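Standup notes, structure subgroup. Blocker cleared on the iron/sulfur cluster input:
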Amino acid sequence: MNAAAATRVEPPLALLAELTHRCPLRCPYCSNPLELLRASAELDTGTWARVFSEAAALGVLQVHFSGGEPLVRRDLTELVAHAAKAGLYVNLITSGIGLDAGRLAQLVEAGLEHVQLSFQDSDPTVGDRVAGLAGAQQIKRKAAALVCAAGLPLTINAVVHRHNLERLENIIDLAVALGAERLEIAHVQYYGWGLANRAALLPSREQLDKATATVEAARARFTGRLVIDYVVPDYYARRPKACMGGWGRRFLNVSPSGKVLPCHAAETLPGLRFPTVAEASLSEIWYHSEGFDRFRGTEWMPEPCRSCERREIDWGGCRCQAFALTGDGARTDPACALSPDHFLLAAAQAEATAELPEFIYRQHSNAPLTARPPVLQSG
Ligand code: SF4
Ligand code: FES
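Run returned:
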């Protein structure tokens, strides 16, 4: 990047701290990489504490604790305390599995300010099947009640797809009944496990249109009571989303092993090297690393993006999706109707009405893949 462009790089607003890939759930749309990291490779408490201090010094305002499931980290309370002490607004993105009143009280005491709780469905049977864990839905309901009782603002995250869209209205009603202030309805984004399960998850155009109308009606019905954010699937878009608000513009991710990334899927892009927090400070990486510079701004863009009036609105879409679909992360996102690769989405759309394949559940081991949810172990 030239010097003039370098001066335009603003500090990041938010840090996604991916504490671990471990998770009691096995959702087939998980955005974690197919190659999941083991606990022994995770950053330790002291290193995360330094990362939070460096993030605050860099200008980051919010930290989102994510995973995997952050609650599997025994040191989560300590990590929240470090982040809050550094002056960061602390949000926990969780499945709710592993949360009890005592743990939540400790987290609140340490400085936790907001919780985002995932629900797989309004129907507990389907919810448990998608989560890959029997009894998960019941535990989540209890977790929601605990968060509200603790006085924390609650957001419900609902990922929607071919298996649950027909119950979207019930999912919205569930969020209201649980006391959520905000509901994030996000269609599956097709990276990682989501891409591996695309044929089992991608909705039809008809399902999508119906869902969009349901969201609009619910927004009117619950004005002043529930804020609904709605993320539509790229596969039916005419223009792509500004992924991450633009590469290296607003967000940075730190992976469980300490890699500093512009987005959660950036490691899938070949030929790019992303330093770890052990190799350089967040500030050096944000302002001076090759990986962050590669797709910043508009200089890297091919046509039709290069001369497009939307190039500083959507920043050419998603680099990881461009790579996943075309094998070249530097091409225009095929989600854009102007992309020469837009036809690739038509083939994927045909999957949405084809015979339904079984889920490939995310897993750490090399055990055989299964479509059957395991039984919840007690204790
Ligand atoms: Fe966005 Fe590029 Fe499509 Fe223009 S051509 S709308 S900049 S992706
Ligand atoms: Fe990597 Fe969109 S997920 S740029």
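Discussed briefly. The chain has a mean pLDDT of 92.
Next: hand off to the docking folks.
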